[in-house]
Amino acid sequence: MEYFKKILRFAKPYSKYGYLNIFFNILYALFSALSFAALIPMLNVLFDKTKKVYEAPVYSSLGHLKDYLQDYLNYRVTLYAADDEMKALVLVIGLVLVLFLLKNLFNYLAMFYITFLRNGVLKDVRNSMYRKMVDLPISYFSEKRKGDVIARITSDVLEIQHSFLSILELIVREPLTILFTIIVMFFISVKLTLFVFIFIPIAGMIISRIGKSLKKQSDRVQKEQGEFLSIVEETLGGLRVIKAFNAESRFYQTFKISTFRFFAYSNKLLNRQNLASPTGEFLGIMVIGVLLWFGGKMVLVDETLDASSFIAYMGLAYNILTPAKSISKASYNVKKGNAAAERVLEILETENPIVNKANAITKAAFEKEIILKKVSFKYEDEYVLRNFDLNVPKGQTVALVGQSGSGKSTIANLVTRFYDVNEGSILIDGTNIVDITKKSLRNLMGLVTQDSILFNDTVRNNIGMGKQNASEEEIIAAAKIANAHEFIAELPDGYDTNIGDSGNKLSGGQKQRLSIARAVLKNPPIMILDEATSALDTESERLVQDALEKMMRNRTSIVIAHRLSTIQNADSIVVLQKGEIVEQGSHNELMAIDGVYRKLVEMQSLAP
């Protein structure tokens, strides 16, 4: 229940629907009991047992309430029908029909209002999860499988929705139905009702024992669902590689093993859950059987109860079975939903280590320089950067070169504050970036990555991500600077063409030029280019390189380079090895040294 207390906060905006649901559930429970009690006068008329009352009875005390109500009903029947039995029968049948109609009307209204609350909670939990997912640092998702996160925002949240409804029924509707029914049963026969109470706790104990392991089994099912969703996500992302290496059968086997485990866990969970209903019903019928024996003895032998009251009493006793079964089912759902709530709250309650300080400033412009001062950083155990120093003056292009794993991309991740440094500091115009709001810091920067990250949307919207409400002219101007306008104009719908999932309808060079256009439209003073041309053919590289040079004019740029031919005009080239600077200078200066940089250039020029 602790997890559901936390989920309850999402119900606050919809509390009015909750109160309306409770109100109509109270009326439903009341009329549910009264509709069965109304069978007594109908049976009395049928068996010709109706006592004729010609004067209105007078209420005396609570102890005689049952006799007063019975006499009053008989008085109304006598007054309306006199000696016409059919007229009396029509009256009492009408009473029964009205009570059952009201019962079902209130049931519908209760369910009508709870729908808004359930779906509202579902919507708000998903919105909160999505916002949290976007807000959490990139490092969080490098440790999580994407499929598991997708499972949490889809099936786990849906499970909470069903469980949430079950709890409301558990708290209000079904217990009240049982309470009102028992009150009416006490009116009919105190002795018989006390006899029923001996059996109800026994039945409850048996049912509760069945559901003890449900939370653990439900947790297994949900985790396994996340596992096979991750396999699906990885398969769709790497379909070309899978087909190229004829690895379809291998991935199919992995998926099959996961779905088999899901099959086994689901069977255990559902079979235990399904045991609730037949167990509850059998125990209920046992109680009914004992009641028939004990009540029959009161009617036939002791003659302390009349037959019509006993038949109505049996109907009321059976009326307890349905809510009792619902309570047992709801308690299972609560245990099952508890596991889902735990998984959802794990994401919602994860602390974001990269947050704005309370007194963080909003920086609107870049004026002097970027300084990395004694920066040390590690992703896990080993340091990627150690005591790293770098100065990037405004208006200059600084290129970072070195072998894979030397820390080039890490510098880009730290400057944009996707990660925080372990030691040292990064300063922009003398202000530590941790003292600047994340939004204003990233507003100063444009990023073009090696992998062109595009979205399943139109060309216009992909470029327009760089600037909200950008005009048509601005988008076209950015595309022209990025050498993208010509190929966009040839697309079926021009700028309104959908480029497919991850932009897969475009070539690598076209995708990269769209990424550059997006950065150009943003028009930031600082550009970070992370191996922006490394995955392109020669023709595409020429077009992209030309676009990059146009974009970098009058801007401060940090260029992470794989192809050294693309950064020969940089103001400063920094050569990295194992997170440390081994050489620094212009292209000509470094070539004259005859060191690491020159060897890298010669190796690339000799490469076919």
UniProtKB/TrEMBL annotation:
GO cellular component: plasma membrane
All residue ranges annotated as the ABC transmembrane type-1 domain in the record: 22-336
UniProt protein name: ABC transporter ATP-binding protein/permease
PROSITE patterns: ABC_TM1F (PS50929), ABC_TRANSPORTER_1 (PS00211), ABC_TRANSPORTER_2 (PS50893)
InterPro entries: AAA+_ATPase, ABC1_TM_dom, ABC1_TM_sf, ABC_transporter-like_ATP-bd, ABC_transporter-like_CS, P-loop_NTPase, Type_1_exporter
ABC transporter domain sequence ranges: 370-603
High-level lineage: Bacteria, Pseudomonadati, Bacteroidota, Flavobacteriia, Flavobacteriales
Membrane-spanning ranges: 22-47, 88-114, 178-207
Major localization listed first in the record, in broad terms: membrane
Source species of the chain: Cerina litoralis
SMART domains: AAA
Record's keyword annotation contains Protease: no
Keywords for the protein's UniProt record, in alphabetical order: ATP-binding, Membrane, Nucleotide-binding, Transmembrane, Transmembrane helix
UniProt-listed Pfam families: ABC_membrane (PF00664), ABC_tran (PF00005)
Entry membrane topology: Multi-pass membrane protein
Compartments, record wording: Cell membrane
A GO MF label: ATP hydrolysis activity
